Every structure is written in C-alpha cells, then in structure tokens.
C-alpha cells in the first residue's frame, strides 16, 4: 500500500483507492491499508465506505488513535454524534498524558461537531498536564469564534503579555 500512500499524498484519491484495494487483496489484514483506504474514500466524500474501512482498521488495530479519529470524523459527517464522541474519547484514552493530542481532539470537536462541552473537558485535561501550552489558547479561540463569543476571546487575548522588542529573536 506504499504506492497507494504516495498517490494519496498527491491527492490522487481514486488511483490511491485502486492501489490500496489491490494491496488489500494480497494482505487483507493490513490495518494501515484499511486506514488509508478510509482516508481516501473520505476525501472523495464517500463517507459510508470510509466508515467501513476505518472500522475494519479498528477491528485489526483497536487502539490506533489516528484511525479512531478518522472514524469519529466520518461519523460526525454522517450525523452519528454519539459514536463520534465515543471514538474521540477512546482516542484520548490511548495516550492520556499527550496534551498536544488531547488539544487537537478538542479542536476537532469544536470544529466538526460543535461539541463545546467535550472540547472544554479535553482542554482542562490538557491543562493539567501542561498548563503553559499555547494549543490550549488556540483551542479556546477557535471555540469562541464558533460560538460567536468574540468579546470573551478578545478579553483573553488582552491578558497575553506582548513580548518586548528586545526579547524577540530577530536573526
């Protein structure tokens, strides 16, 4: 499926799907090939087929967080919010101390599912691991924009210290 990955990377999704399916004929238990098939199908808007591919990947590699998030994204598009939240939570449990990943999941929920409660919960968990990371701020800003809470966003931005010119690396 390496050739399929190359085609996928070039946004040649139909060709990637053909290549990946050929690879799966010879190696039907390749979880990564099923994941890549799901990504390619989702890129073409074939969400039901993508969902099947992602779930096949998960039957082979149940704790693959990238596949969990791919499946969650497709489920959100298909209106299966409960399943999407469950898959997202499973992905967060794979490496619970990974604050960057927790935060990325939060952003995904804020953007794709308008699931602001879960996004805030994940942000809080990420803050416990690393309270000084800028991704928390970025997630909150995205959430505020999507919730039309611009005044709250501007108030938080005003609290961020602006570096002095001497503090900047101008090389």
Overall form: elongated
Tally of separate helices: 10
Radius of gyration: 19 Å
How would a crystallographer describe the biggest sheet? none
Strand content: under 5%
- How much helicity do the residues have? over 70%
Count of individual beta strands: 0
Q: List low-confidence stretches.
A: 167-171
Q: In terms of structural class, how would the helical and strand content be classed?
A: mainly alpha
Mean pLDDT: 77
Q: CA-to-CA gap between the ends?
A: 43 Å
H-E string: HHHHHHHHHH
Tell me what you see in this structure.
This protein is mainly α and 171 residues long. Helices cover 74% and strands 0% of the residues. It has helices spanning 2-9, 13-26, 31-43, 47-60, 65-77, 81-94, 99-113, 116-129, 134-146, 150-158. It is elongated, with a radius of gyration of 19 Å. The termini are far apart.
List the helices and strands and how they pair.
Elements lengths: L1 H8 L3 H14 L4 H13 L3 H14 L4 H13 L3 H14 L4 H15 L2 H14 L4 H13 L3 H9 L13
Keywords:
171 residues, disordered C terminus, mainly alpha, 10 helices, elongated
């Amino acid at each position: 499926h390496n050739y399929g990955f190359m085609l996928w990377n070039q946004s040649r999704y139909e060709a990637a799907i053909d290549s990946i399916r050929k690879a799966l004929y010879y190696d039907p238990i390749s979880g990564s090939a099923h994941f890549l098939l799901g990504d390619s199908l989702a890129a073409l808007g074939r969400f039901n087929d993508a969902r099947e591919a992602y779930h096949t990947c998960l039957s082979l590699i149940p704790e693959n967080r990238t596949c969990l998030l791919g499946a969650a994204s497709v489920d959100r598009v298909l209106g299966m919010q409960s399943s999407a939240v469950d898959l997202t939570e499973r992905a967060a449990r794979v490496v619970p101390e990974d604050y960057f990943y927790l935060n990325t999941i939060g952003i995904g929920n804020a953007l794709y599912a308008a699931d602001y409660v879960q996004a805030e919960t994940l942000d809080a968990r990420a803050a416990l691991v690393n309270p000084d990371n800028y991704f928390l701020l970025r997630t909150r800003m995205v959430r505020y924009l999507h919730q039309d809470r611009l005044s709250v966003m501007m108030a938080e931005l005003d609290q961020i210290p602006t570096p002095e010119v001497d503090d900047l690396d101008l090389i």
